[in-house]
Each structure stands twice: as C-alpha cells, then as structure tokens.
Amino acid sequence: MSNKIYFTPGPAQLFYTFEEHLKRALFLDIPSISHRSKDFIRIVEETNEGMRELLDLPAGYDIYYLNSANEAWDRIIQNLVSKRSHHFINGAFSRKFYEFALLHGKSSTATEAEDGGSFEAFEIPRGAELIGITKNETSVGHSFLESEIEKLRKENPDKLIALDVVSASPSLEVNFQNIDTAYFSVQKAFGLPAGLAVWIANEKCHEIAEERSITTSLGSYRTLPNLKKFGDKSQTPETPNMLFIYLLGKIAQDILSAGVQRMRNDTIYKATLLNQAIENHPHLAHFVSSKEHRSKTTIVASTKKAAEFINYFQQRGLILGTGYGSHKKNHLRIANFPTHSKESVEMLCDLMTKIE
Amino acid sequence: MSNKIYFTPGPAQLFYTFEEHLKRALFLDIPSISHRSKDFIRIVEETNEGMRELLDLPAGYDIYYLNSANEAWDRIIQNLVSKRSHHFINGAFSRKFYEFALLHGKSSTATEAEDGGSFEAFEIPRGAELIGITKNETSVGHSFLESEIEKLRKENPDKLIALDVVSASPSLEVNFQNIDTAYFSVQKAFGLPAGLAVWIANEKCHEIAEERSITTSLGSYRTLPNLKKFGDKSQTPETPNMLFIYLLGKIAQDILSAGVQRMRNDTIYKATLLNQAIENHPHLAHFVSSKEHRSKTTIVASTKKAAEFINYFQQRGLILGTGYGSHKKNHLRIANFPTHSKESVEMLCDLMTKIE
Q1: Does the structure show a pLDDT above 90 at A1?
Q2: Please, is A146 exposed, middle or buried when counting C-beta atoms within 10 Å of its C-beta (0-12, 13-18, 19+)?
Q3: Which residues of chain B does A8 touch, with a Cβ-Cβ cutoff of 8 Å?
Q4: pLDDT for position A229
Q5: Is B105–A19 a contact, with Cβ atoms under 8 angstroms apart?
Q6: Of A221, A223, A236, A247, which to mutate for an interface test with B (greatest number of B Cβ within 10 Å)?
Q7: Alpha-carbon distance B15 to B189, whole Å?
C-alpha cells in the first residue's frame, strides 16, 4: 500500500492487517484449491464463526455470500417480497433500495425525509411485507437509532425488517434480534477490496422464501433456498470469491482478538474528535442536524470550500471523501472505520485547524 | 504461492505474473480509489482494450463484468430469451445452462449426447431464440469445433448464439463473428482467483434486451441495458471487483506481449505431450473418443486408478484434477492453461511414465 490514508467511505482504506493475510493466503494457495475441498469448507466455517461472534448474531441467523449490496437489494426483493415493501428514505442508498423494489414490479411505499433528516412518523402501511431501513446512510451520514428500529419491531411483529448495515457493521452495535435480514459489502468498514457482500437471513426469511418458491420464480439461481441448501454444508452454489471470504474471516478474527468493545469505544472517540473539529471550524458545519442521528462511521460536514479541504489533505496524503451525488461539491465525508487509527484521526483533526 | 503446481481445471494455478501485479495494485491503492474516479475508468478501459485485442473481438461486441459464469447463465436467459432456448448438452456445465433456462420458466429444449460424446445432428427447433453451446466442456474435456459453430450460425441466422468460453478463452481460437454472446470466469485459463466473470454481448443482444425491457422485467438491476448504460462510460452499476478487473487487464497485456499465437502454439504442444502420455500409459485412456473434439485445455483420461495417480503427483507437488460429478473416481482432469509452462508439462509427462 502507498503512504496515503484513505478516509473515503468506500472503497476505503484497506484493513491494516490486509497485506499480511493476503501474503499468507497466497502461500496457502487459497485461490487455487478446490471450492468443494474440506480445506475451503473449513475456511467458510471459520469466516462464518468469526462474523457470527463479531456481529453477535442470534441462533438461526445464517450468513451467505453475495457480491455487492446492490445484489442484496435484488435478492431481498426477489425472495422476500410478493407485493410491497416499505422504505425509510433520507439519502441516495435508502432511495436505491426502494427503487430496486419498484424495478422488480412491487407496489412499494416510502416514508421520506429530506437528505440526512430524521424521521418523525414510523407508521407502516398495512400491506407492507418488509420494512427497509438503512442503519448508516453512507451518502449523508445519518444513522437510524436502535430505539427506532426497536419501535418498528414492536409495532410490526408480522413484518420482516431488512437492515442495510453497509459501513455500519462491525463498528456500530446492532441488535439483530430486532431485524430479520441484513447485508453489507466488505469494502467499507471491513477494509477489504470490493467484490464481496455478506447477507444475513433468519428462519422467518427462510420460511417465506421457501413458501414463495413453490409458486413463484425467485429470479435467479441464487435464491435463498438454494443458498441455504449449499450454505448448510458451508458451501456456495458457484465458485465464490474464495480469497475475499478467507480474508474477511481473518480480519474478523483480528478485530475480535483486539476486542470488539475496544474497537467500538475507539470509534466513538474518533467520531468525537472529528465532530469537534467540524464544530470548531469556521468553514464547516454538521450536515445532519439531529445530534443523536449523526453517523459515527461516516462523518459528513457541509462546506462551501469542499475542494480546498480535499486538496489540502490530498497534498498531505490524506484522502477525504467528496459529497455524494448532488452534494458532491458541498460536503466532506470522512470515514471512521476500524482500520483508522486514533493517531491518524488526531493528525487529520490537527491539520483541519490549519485550513483558513 | 507455494511450490505446488495446480493442474486443476479451476480454481487453477494463478498466472505466473499474478503476484507481481498484485503487489503493484496495492502500491497503487487500486482497492481504495473511487470506482467513479478517472483513474479507475482508465483501468476499465485498459482491461477492455486488452481483452478486445486478446480475444480478437469484432467491433460492436461489448465487455461487461459479472461475478461468475453461473451469473452469466442467469443474465443471458433473463435478458435474451422470452420463451425458449436450445442447448447442446454433453456434460455437467452445458446441462447446467439448460437447467437455468428451465429454472427461469422457459420451455427450453436440448440436443443431448452422452458425457463427452460428439453431436451428430445440429437441427434447432423452430421456436428457439438462442442456441447455447459450450466451447470447452470442462467437466469432461470435450470441445465444440469452430466448424460446428459456423454451421449452426449459417443455418440459424435469425437466432442468437451464446458460447460458454470458460476454460477455452484465451487459449483456444474462437471466431466471435459466429456468435452473439459469450462468457467466462477468470479462475480458469486466465489464472486469477474466483469472483469475476466477463460477459461479451453484441449489438443484436442489446437490441433484443432493450426491446424486451419495454414490456418485461429483466430480473435484476444488472440488466444488459443497465450494464450498457454504465459500460458506455467504462463504469459499472455498482462498485465492482476493481482489484480483479485491474489484474485481468494486466494478465491480458502479458499474454499479448509474449504473443497470442505463441501461447496458442504452446497450448497445442503441451496438449500433444499430455495426449501422448495418456496413449502410452497402460492404465489411462482418452475419455473423449473423437480425437478432433478432445479439449486442448482440459485433458481428460479415464482410469481405474485415479486415486493412485492423484496421490502420486500430489506427493511430488503437482495437483491434478479429479473427475467431475459422477466421474469423480474414474477420471483424471489435467488443465493446460497459459500459465502452465512447457517444462512443467514435460515434467508431468515424465513422471506419468513412472507410475505402474
């Protein structure tokens, strides 16, 4: 890796042990061994066990491997929604999930807030089968609160809840008991290259997909029942991205060894530093107005001088994220992932004060 | 990488320059840069240009990135087939493509030969919209001849032809003028880890998918029209497997620099050696009886002593492939890909004579 530090919110800085594990993976010929071999099945088991412990997954929540969060949107709608889902939208990624539902011909509905705004109403239309929530809206730095998810769970015991944990897991604590399915791509908080995503689904999801499969095409060979059929043997229907599954397991193990709580405490400490730097700077302001909804993993500042900030840091080897979509020129986005050391964030905040 | 040499037909031996390019990719921060950046667009352009030259693609044939050949089967059926396709089946992978068509609710038909057998009739049912052919049936080592593809093309100018070039490209010469769409996964003849596939589609495919999209859901966000919308800007709808796209381009460039014709001549030389070794061995026989249909990239021998051969070679660091599926215990499969040096194949053949 170069000497730069990527604070971009994905693709992001690689995890600090990535290269070491990559070298070991090549020494072990992980990309060349059979994906049906006992050795590879053991690797899938280890990665699954690591993820299960790291995310504190309850029993009955299974792990499957996809290639992107976009694919997870396809799969969730295809497998779990017959007529309509309901989506909470306050940014580009939560909107995309809703748009995927429409693309699949569903009569889905949405509760919309302005970009980065909080939601005030949590009523769900009666016919909705699944509620789509974004734990961390990476485009604008808004976090859905655990208490809000819990409220939705209590008021809608009959509906599935799908949680987008892209750039949230493993940094933010999520009570998976309150949701039925979740997904993330590995190029964010896990510090891996893009090309792999994790899809978590519980027994309720399996029942629904299984029942729907009797009368309906679930739209792909990668149906939930087929993923489960292979997954129950720690396998995948096709040859998967074996190298990245191995590396994900190793990184999960590293975070576990260093301590999940410590990593989460560090996340809060670094977010606090970054938030203070924004508050103390004359040219920066928080984009998300509700303090408690501000993301701890994707810090977003409004500014009229985004290009100046980005150039200043770039010259010093620190790569900040631009705004997303229509916010491209008016936002700074700063990722705060497990691989970002406290020292690197302190350095970033120190430099911030020098920009006039 | 270890000192072993994998002659398994996929996942396979990594390309001999893989590690060098991987190091360079990490130095350049390829996994961390934005997938919307000019730098990454340039990488996609370079990989596309390399693939185009290496495969000698005609104008109007576009390149898209998927994650597996399995996904290509989904996409081809979803985008290009309304009612039925017709498949030539003589092994597990050609059969799978047919089964995918049925899974998607198509009334597809098939011309079946026994595993590894050649086809005698090439008539296509009238209503078939697409003909599915497997250039190299990796499960049993049968190759479809260019003359057979040409015959199908001439007799069916109104139908699409989809060619599976997994473990065929870039080793075998394919006249892409005779087909409309093709696909391969990179963990075979290109010597990359699994997790990326290339999908080639011509203008006729675009027209059909575009027209179908007006009235029908094409089953995913990864429709051909959407892939084209992004592909025309050398981009992808989602964050793709950027690292492997970069590495694929570099390996394509290496093969081009050394000379495509030379690599193909070497493929023939190595296949000749392996075929002779089979013919000269009392315990081995060719599985594919038709000499001209024997694959040059996946050499398959029938034997009652498969386990002995595999163990003997394994002890010497050479990993041979077992038979596929029901042939597991009665076949040896030996890959002959660009990364396998003439010297390594000569060594393999020498050792072969020592097994009694």
Answers
A1: no
A2: middle
A3: 32, 34
A4: 98
A5: no
A6: A221
A7: 9
Looking at residue B10, what is its pLDDT?
87
Set of chain A residues whose Cβ sits within 8 Å of the Cβ of B31: 11, 14, 187, 192-194
Partners of A100 on chain B (C-beta within 8 Å) are: 221
The verdict on A149 and A279 lying in the same domain is no
Last residue of a domain, one of B239, B256, B273: B256
Contacts of A63 (CB under 8 A, 6+ apart): A47, A48, A51, A52, A57, A198, A199, A200, A231
B238: nearest CB among A70, A240, A244: A70
pLDDT (tens digit, 9 = 90+) per residue, A110-167? 999 999 999 999 999 999 999 999 999 999 999 999 999 999 999 999 999 999 999 9
End-to-end CA distance of chain A: 31
Whole-angstrom distance, CA of residue A208 vs CA of residue A206: 6
CATH number for the domain spanning B190: value is 3.40.640.10
Q: What pLDDT is attached to residue A207? A: 98
Q: What mean pLDDT is predicted for residues A217-246?
A: 97
Can you list the residues of chain B whose pLDDT is less than 70?
none
- B196 vs A contacts (CB less than 8 Å): 195
Which of B11, B31, B105 lies closest to A35 in CB terms?
Answer: B11
Task: Tell whether A225 lies on the interface with B, counting CB pairs under 8 A.
Answer: no
Number of domains chain A contains: 2
Peptide bond between residue B125 and the one before it cis (omega within 30 degrees of 0): no
Confidence (pLDDT) at B252? 98
How many Cβ atoms from other residues are within 10 Å of residue A38's Cβ? 9
List the 75-104 stretch of A: residues with Cβ below 8 A of B. Answer: 100, 103-104
Neighbour order of strands in the sheet with A62-66? A62-66, A197-201, A181-185, A160-164, A130-134, A85-89, A109-112
Q: Is the pLDDT of residue A218 over 90?
A: yes
What pLDDT score does B172 carry?
Answer: 98
Whether residues A264 and A329 share a domain: the answer is: yes
B118 and B193 belong to one structural domain: yes
Measured between beta carbons, which residues in chain B are less than 8 angstroms from residue A2?
A: 27-29
Please list, in sequence order, all residues whose beta carbon lies within 8 angstroms of the beta carbon of residue A154, skipping any fewer than 6 positions away. Answer: none
Do residues A95 and A229 both lie within one domain? yes
Answer whether B68's CB lies under 8 Å from B93's CB.
no
pLDDT at A317 over 90: yes
Mean of the pLDDT values across residues A198-226?
A: 97
Contact: B1, A27; criterion CB under 8 Å: yes
Query: Do both A110 and A245 map to the same domain?
Result: yes
Does B70 touch chain A if contact means CB atoms closer than 8 Å? yes
B242–chain A Cβ distance below 8 A for any pair: yes
Q: Is the pLDDT confidence value at A8 over 90?
A: yes
Q: Looking at the predicted complex, does its ipTM rise above 0.90?
A: yes
From the list B4, B19, B32, the residue facing A6 with the nearest CB is B32
Contact: B104, A217; criterion CB under 8 Å: yes
Q: Are strands B5-7 and A331-335 parallel, antiparallel or unpaired?
A: unpaired
pTM for the structure as a whole = 0.98
Q: Is A212 helix (H, G, I), strand (E, B) or coil?
A: helix
Please give the average per-residue pLDDT across A12-32, as a whole number: 98
Helix, strand, coil shares, percent, chain B, to 5: 45, 15, 40
- Domain range for A278: 5-13+259-352
Q: Chain-wide mean pLDDT for chain A?
A: 98
Tell me the average pLDDT across A188-213: 98
